[in-house]
Amino acid sequence: KAPQLCPLSPDLIRNEVECLKADFNHRIKEVLFNSLFSAYYVYYDMRWSCEHLIMVWINAFVMLTTQLLPSKYCDLLHKSAAHLGIWQKLEHGSYSNAPQHIWSENTIWPQGVLVQHSRCLYRAMGPYNVAVASDVSHACFYFLFHCPLRLLNLLILIEGSVVFYQPYSLLRLEKWNHTFSMALILFCNYYVLFKLLRDRIVLGRAYSYPLSTPHRDK
């Protein structure tokens, strides 16, 4: 197969991925710091403090993540991952009769092509492939963001688990201030879960519709 053309150059795609990786890591650090900072202010009852700490931290984590990683930003990460592509490492000798190429940073490799890089054999798995075959960070970036709903599904799973656990915890509380605090967090979690599910339904339909048409990238 001959290399396919892409509207973006390989260097531009890789540079975009590096910038997005740095920006994404910065946003995640901000999410972790601010959610832990919010969870720091808890009561001093050890058991209650630990449980309340976890509830506040998870709630703050999900809310900050949805704020700092909005749908448009996640869509940008998804498109960049689609342009980046992914490689599968193969055993030497398993495709000895198939055409093999030397990996080049200036080439956009089509799906299924075999290349040699750093004395290893790789097969292109994405529609377009400009990722460095041996770069683990490129593989992680593609794994996290090539599915546009993966991050949203993860947040729904986390928030849903908390919402299912909190009513059970609420029934075991005896002090009114603990009950009031947990009920307030539960109310906030219901709202956050509602927004996440709404976004999941809307984005799920938006991403599933273009799959049936030949003009998905337009």
TrEMBL record:
Lineage: Eukaryota, Metazoa, Chordata, Craniata, Vertebrata
Subcellular location(s) of the protein: Membrane
Source taxon at top rank: Eukaryota
Species this chain originates from: Spermophilus dauricus (Daurian ground squirrel)
UniProt protein name: Transmembrane protein 39A
Sequence similarity: Belongs to the TMEM39 family.
Record-level GO cellular component terms: endoplasmic reticulum membrane
Gene Ontology terms describing biological process: negative regulation of autophagosome assembly; negative regulation of autophagosome maturation
Keyword terms, alphabetized: Membrane, Transmembrane, Transmembrane helix
InterPro entries xrefs: Uncharacterised_TMEM39
Membrane topology note: Multi-pass membrane protein
